[in-house]
Amino acid sequence: MEEFVISKATRIVTDFGNDVLRNAAQILTRDIQMTVTTIQTDNEIDLRVTSALPRTEQFSVAQPDAAHLVVQSGTLRGVMYGALAISKNVLKVNDFWFWLDKLPKKVPQAVVGNPTRLKLPDYRVSYRGWFVNDEVLLNHWQYQESNQNVWQMVYETLLRCGGNIIIPGTGNNAHAHRAIAAAMGLIVTHHHAEPLGAQMFARVYPDLTASYVKHPDLFKSLWQKAIAEQQDSETVWTLGFRGQGDRPFWLDDDHHYTLADRAKVINDVIQTQYRLVKAAVPDAQCAINIYGELTGLYHAGLIKIPQDVIQIWADNGYGKMVSRRQGEDDPRTDVLSGQNPNLSQGIYYHVAFHDLQASNFLTLLQIDPHTVAAELDKVHQAGMDDFVLCNTGNIKPSILFLALMAQSWRTDFKVRSTADILTTYVQQYYETNQQKIVALYQRYFTTVFNYGQLADQRAGDEFYTYTLRKIVAAWLAHSQQLTAMTWLTGDKPLQAELDEIADLLHGHVTPFIRLDQQIQTAMASLPTMDANRLYNDLWLSVVVHAAASEALQRTLTAFKAATQPESPNLITAFLQIDAAEQALQRILTAWQSNPLKKWAHFYDNDCYTNISLTIQVLKTLAGYLRITGDGPDEDQWERHYLMTKGDARIMLLSNTHQAYDDHELASRLLAKGIETQKHSKS
């Protein structure tokens, strides 16, 4: 029989009335059109669900004759996987082609060859997927003038990676997006703060105390409504009870709870939710997150969970399978040892994290790939990979680790060195200078520094801006200590805290600035698409670290200059703060000047690390220093340092022009070499 040839004339045949089959057909049609260039023999690919095959995710591809290729499975998701297997293995469309702008090479036609070789890989993880959490960048970005298109690309990418389950956003996003996720063939599950995917009590009943003890029937009605809305879709039902947000429930209740009281409420809720779900969907799969405050109650033996519920454990947000730090509390309880092998267990693992302290949100995870791979393998060895959900943040900054996570789901996964992992990644997505590019990625992981003594205590992008803003707040309020920073500095007075942070930064800012420059040099010599890819996938992470660490260091220098007991040097402090502001402005420029216009507005809604807010905070501080040192008319520094002596002494006109703005004044002072001079203007 002749081989099946895919050309522009190849048609996709399916039941277009079914959402999943229609989406699979549309994806495959698009990939054919962007890959092959010629019109060959008239033929068709048939996507179909059949009761003749078991109801698994596996699919089969057969060629009954030269003009027909049949992709079939016992499930809709299996058919989707089959369509994507043709896209990946025949048309050579990469899993992350959309996020890395790696379009397939144009070819006249594509030959399927032996269709029976196309099959779903063997997975050691049954439920494998993403939690698209803290998705504030995705929310405000559009692809082809549509935000819905953005989310469809998220779902498609997860399916390409072999994933099958998703939390499609946080809060209202999850509710709005879960129907689209299901229409792509994905199982839907829920945020640990939103059991059963129900609406938050406080959102529905804003005038009532969110107390289960006071209003059990109202809570039950919300749960029953959520079950009714989702019972006809594939769902893993998340049980549990937290407060109105990602926090303990008792913080939202005016009742006093002992430890036993807290456990009793949670146990009552779990049993009630479990009964409600099973009454509506008898074969429902349920899960519960042993997360945050629940960890301590669980280890105290106070939590009762039905035997068939998957128990999900989390890493600390820094790649280590220990309990997360919450504010000042960091017990680092190990979650891999002492588990019950008779229970189904899984993990919730962060490659992006938001903790308002030191995590990565805008940048590539600061933990090296080998360490992550080794930790995921420990999870497997502990028998805790029935369910593996990855917190992906906004997808784009985390592609390297999402690709690694997808590999870890498979039975053939092997722990490899960071160099090997990076080499495979670079060879897949870059066309040229691969060895040089691998070295640049490696330098990222050796340049990131530790904020603490332990290997996983490494500083992400939030470290710089949250610390900087706290320093400015303490400075302007004349506080004696930074707010909520004893996790880093211990219980010390302000100056001792700042000295410790300065010592921590010492020797680490320059290496990031150097790496920043090395990547820019490399980009100048690369072919356009490789340069653009390096710009987006690595340089944007490095420039955030380089510029933000410089801004933090300059802020510390400014504080020291301005608070010298005998001779406060306000002009040097002012110039340092202006330089800090300009350093951060370089990040915004990098985002907005993206050579790929598709991504020009991707970072517009950075409201977590919040570079724009940090710039405004520095502007406020510069204004404070200026008005304190330059006087109420903001003209004394100009008169003293910029005017000629003769002009400065003549007062026929008190002013000859409006006062310079802060940055213009700083630029003129620097041009005069003022920065290194000592001044005692107060």
In short:
The protein is an alpha/beta fold and 682 residues long. It has helices at 19-33, 76-89, 97-100, 136-139, 147-160, 172-183, 201-204, 216-230, 259-280, 293-299, 369-381, 399-408, 418-429, 434-447, 461-477, 486-489, 494-505, 509-525, 528-562, 570-592, 611-630, 636-642, 645-649, 662-671; strands at 5-6, 11-13, 44-49, 59-65, 68-73, 110-111, 127-131, 165-167, 187-188, 236-239, 285-290, 310-314, 345-350, 387-391.
Describe the protein.
The protein has 682 residues and is of the alpha/beta class. It is built from 24 helices and 14 strands. Helix 13 packs across helix 14, helix 18 runs antiparallel to helix 19 and helix 20 runs antiparallel to helix 21. The longest helix is centred in the last third of the chain and has 35 residues.
Structural class: alpha/beta
Counted beta strands = 14
- Shape descriptor: globular
Helix content: 40-55%
What is the overall number of helices? 24
Our measurement of the CA-to-CA distance between the termini, rounded to an integer number of angstroms, reads: 91 Å
- Provide the residue-averaged pLDDT: 95
- Percent of sequence in beta strands: 5-15%
Using the CA coordinates, give the radius of gyration: 28 Å
Oligomeric state as shown: single chain
Reading side by side through the largest sheet, how are the strands ordered? 9-8-7-14-13-12-11-10
Poorly predicted parts: 678-682
Q: What is the makeup of the main sheet?
A: 8 strands, parallel
